[in-house]
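One such shown below:

_____
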Amino acid sequence: MTTPAPNSSSADTEALILQLRRKQGNWVDWAMACQTLQKSGMSPQAIFEGTGFEPIQQNQIMVAGQVYQSILGGAVAEPVLEHFTARGSDSLYELRILSKDDRAQAVQFIYDQGLDSEQVRDVAKALKEFSYRHDLPPGFTNHPGDAVAFSYWGFARQTSDLQARSRLIAQGLRFAHSAGAREAIEKLLTDFAVVKAKTAPRLPLFRIETDTDVPFVVPMVGQWPMSADVFQAVPKMEPEGAFGVVKSAGEQAWVPVPGWQVVLTAQDAIAFLMPFNELPNQADSTVSETVLILVDRQQQAWDDSSYFLVSDDSGQLAIRWFDTDPGMPLLGRVIVIVRPKKVLDEAYTQELWQIDE
């Protein structure tokens, strides 16, 4: 059946809805009709109300239809293709996880073995896992039958219950294609050693509980002294999402700081480094360390309890406190000055055995 383009008329849309409602054609036609209707702007729920095809069914046949299209063009024998065209949507849907080449081989294998969709799900998983291997296991080939047989061989080795183990061996022998694969599986009939399956490790999950657990990334201007033009040229940062993802263009530097409330409430935070003794009222200080200055460029309203950045006569930045409104442009308020963590012996903390339990 020929389906109309996405910009189809209302008459074409009604024809497709009628086709689905009456279930005219085969499942491939239905998949194409659902896809065309969705591309034309109809929601899955609207299609369901007009045709009776539930959204989950629409998705299943459309995905199966994509798999079907990938095995056309001579990759599969005509009798096999006719079989899956008539009643193969459930099985083809399970093959969505395979590559195009693996799908063609799997379709032929499924047809030859007469497998139903439940069995196809296990086959598809076995083929996918087998495709991850760089080298073929001893005795096994890359034939789909050997790939499935290898899966049962592995399950059988991990099973201690003799009855269950025998069933798995029988399944492996059923699907084994090569003599080598059959021989490897038959060895399990006399070798009763159980190879314990390795359990997957626990995921290293950590839930953020407090604001201080989240480093707040701030644009870094550079080292003091600097000009007001350089300070104002840094673009405003726009964190996105629950984790505050920051997108950067160019060679902008960034620095992480703890998620303190004063930082989180800043609307346009920016940071730069400054020697401690160049801070206001610290000219006579003997402290020889560099501190991190955080400034909110959005806060430009004067108050007598804060320090502000201003531009002096030469265009250089200066940090000033004013007891009265200075009547000059304020470039931002200093919100926090961060001193580095004090470590008495950096080499000491690098030794794992020195860390307290």
